Amino acid sequence: MQAVVMTDIGGPNVLQVQELPQPRIDHPSQIKVRLQTAGVNPIDTKLRQRGLFYGAEPPAILGCDGAGEVVAIGAEVTRFQPGDRVWFCHGGLGREQGNYAQFTVLNENRAEFLPSRLSYPEAAATPLALITAWEALYDRGRLQEGQTVLIHAGAGGVGHLAIQLAKIRGATVITTVSSPEKADFVRDLGADASINYREQSVREAIMDLTEGRGVDLVFDTVGPEVFRQSLPLLAEYGGIVTILDPGEALDTSEARNRNLTIAFTLMLTPALKDLQSALAHQGEILRLGGEWMSEGRLQVKVSRILELDEAPAAHSLIEEGHTLGKLVLMTG
């Protein structure tokens, strides 16, 4: 099979297409999938730049998100049959093979049936970003109907799904963007207001939009500086959820005085630590999210579909930070 192999730690040029043997089922609960598409996520670029988890070393195949067709099953598999279409977030961290390839093998409990109305590109673009946004807003942030949430980088892969999840929950959504094009994009997704942080003061805009009260919840997908700047934007007893490390130079005195909640979410933790109940919860998220997508209540924006040998270009696009929604590789 053809696969994109991370041959070393470094720039996008370390990603090279190679011919490799197909993976084989070696446990009775596993399924073999002919991959049609693979999602490209920021975590892929970070692993390429900094190294893999589990102490693994290159060569390795990246790619956490995948979608395809079951072609073989182990003797104890009960959920799937050859021919079933599946999607999943599995592998690509260093221990198991990732999805920048034509075939993969995984345990049946890590896959879900692909809703009939979803295309393979939509399916591969969704799992990691959807689960991240869901856990941040619904699980960690406990977002409620009638609350106001600020979602940073709303046009991004996680952000554009978070906007829609917040609207489904009945919240008022404010989001930050970097261009008029992105402002139009998030408005079409349902955002109630957008703030172009390159042209406006985010703090002044938030206080104007909330009549000086601040927002109930902030979702940070950007990093330390944005995290610190977001604390004064919260109303008393509000909360902030981040998917990134806010850094060491963090003064929490204001957060303490105002009874703010600070929470973290890393959707990879269940996979990294083999937390079976948490993995089952993520499967439920994927199932319900898939239903909402089939009903038209939730959509994923696939901005570009690239060929397998264009994986280096996909990584470069993510690192430039100018993409709307998600990027997908065609593997089949």
Tell me what you see in this structure.
- This protein is of the alpha/beta class and 332 residues long.
- The chain folds into two domains: 186 residues, Quinone Oxidoreductase, Chain A, domain 1 (Alpha-Beta Complex), CATH 3.90.180.10; 136 residues, Rossmann fold (3-Layer(aba) Sandwich), CATH 3.40.50.
- The chain is built from eleven helices and 15 strands.
- The strands form three sheets. Strands 3, 4, 5, 6, 7, 14 and 15 form a seven-stranded mixed sheet that branches.
- The N and C termini lie close together (10 Å).
- The relative contact order is 0.16.
- The model has no long low-confidence stretch (mean pLDDT 96).
Describe, in short, the structure shown.
The protein is α/β, with parallel strands linked by helices. The protein is 32% helix and 26% strand.
In N-to-C order, the SSE pattern is EEEHEEEEHHEHEHEHEHEHEHHEHE
> Outline, from the CA principal axes?
globular
Total strands: 15
Indicate how many domains the architecture comprises.
2
How many strands, what sense, and barrel or not for the largest sheet?
Answer: 7 strands, mixed
In what range is the share of β-strand residues? 25-35%
Instruction: List segments where confidence is low: pLDDT < 50 over at least 5 consecutive residues.
Output: none
Mean pLDDT: 96
